[in-house]
Amino acid sequence: xxxxxxxxxxxxxxxxxxxxxxxxxxxxxxxxxxxxxxxxxxxxxxxxxxxxxxxxxxxxxxxxxxxxxxxxxxxxxxxxxxxxxxxxxxxxxxxxxxxxxxxxxxxxxxxxxxxxxxxxxxxxxxxxxxxxxxxxxxxxxxxxxxxxxxxxxxxxxxxxxxxxxxxxxxxxxxxxxxxxxxxxxxxxxxxxxxxxxxxxxxxxxxxxxxxxxxxxxxxxxxxxxxxxxxxxxxxxxxxxxxxxxxxxxxxxxxxxxxxxxxxxxxxxxxxxxxxxxxxxxxxxxxxxxxxxxxxxxxxxxxxxxxxxxxxxxxxxxxxxxxxxxxxxxxxxxxxxxxxxxxxxxxxxxxxxxxxxxxxxxxxxxxxxxxxxxxxxxxxxxxxxxxxxxxxxxxxxxxxxxxxxxxxxxxxxxxxxxxxxxxxxxxxxxxxxxxxxxxxxxxxxxxxxxxxxxxxxxxxxxxxxxxxxxxxxxxxxx
Length: 477
What we know:
Elements: H1 19-34, H2 38-49, H3 57-72, H4 74-82, H5 94-108, H6 114-128, H7 131-144, H8 149-156, H9 164-172, H10 176-186, H11 190-200, E1 206-210, H12 217-224, E2 229-231, E3 238-241, H13 251-254, E4 258-260, H14 263-274, E5 283-286, H15 293-304, E6 308-313, H16 316-326, E7 333-337, E8 350-356, H17 371-374, H18 379-397, E9 398-408, H19 417-425, E10 435-438, E11 456-457, H20 460-463, E12 469-475
Parallel strand pairs: 5-6, 5-8, 6-7, 8-9
Antiparallel strand pairs: 1-3, 1-4, 2-3, 9-12, 10-12, 11-12
Helix pairs in contact: 1-2, 1-3, 1-5, 2-3, 3-5, 4-5, 5-6, 5-7, 6-7, 9-10, 10-11, 14-15, 18-19
């Protein structure tokens, strides 16, 4: 019996490089390998890609969505991928896991057709991982494609009734300890915390600030166009850009007369400037000024009243960013590199002091989604002594009758009310601060849902801002 002739082997086809998915993969690797932040890594990658005329605006939009969507939903996708592989996730090489996560997001978080999402991800795997591991990627993604996101969540998330925090952590892609901390700070039942976690996973608006005396919201709205911008919700100096708006294209931004600044950050500076003080009001201090957004707004407000601003920042490279933000300020100002816990100024030198302290950044998870996976509960122990020391020095720096704004971009109670309470009561061996809390709510006019006071906590789902915290204190002796 004669042998059947063998079919000729298919010629080897080289994988095609998809510039969009290659860019997204490079960004995720930088975030993973170098602890970089996507908002710093992605822009230069996009600028480089745009040098190729074939790379269109829609390609940039897709690359941005792939990067941020994958990072925001990393916890959920990890749980789904874990259900589709035969080994612990820690044993999957990180580059392979990045390709799988990108593929999972295309399958479960976008409208990209299933066959296109799988084939594009496998092609990416062939380019960056090799043909062997691309077969593994193909097998896993085909398993993921068997269900939609809701179907997978029913399979991998524990029931809410059995473990509420773990359920929310998987469904809304936050570490369990972050869910617990946010829920403690927010209070209330299930609806509120789910709204907050969902807001953390939404792409935030780009918000501009028209620096008083240097630009106006009318100018910015006219420059952007009515169809592409809206006035701010709460700040009289805010302008919100529509999706895809390019702040750098605006003349006022290029000249430093306007800048990119979250509305919550603007409100903190405006509240500090709005508190009445008796007597002189000539010297203002921003004690943790980097990278300079609040300093630039405070400097503009101070200039309108004939006051001067001292902007202090410990890190020299961040102090240079503050100098850039304040360049052209119409009033007197000075930028120095100094440690706010060992300041060079004399006690009682200032009439107003802002101390926006370093923190875990849990209030800005919309903008830095990778931060939720990097932070650990023990990080709070590292920030706690610094936050208390900075607040004590701020109260020392202000004169009797002057006002201090203690601010932080975290709603965690250990970084907000507990810090203020400890400093006022002298816990931890320090003397009680000679200061009293001021009700901050009247100095955020028109802003709803500010709680019982006297401090205020802003929320993404209630105010459309980062979760900024503010306590206003007046020195009494």
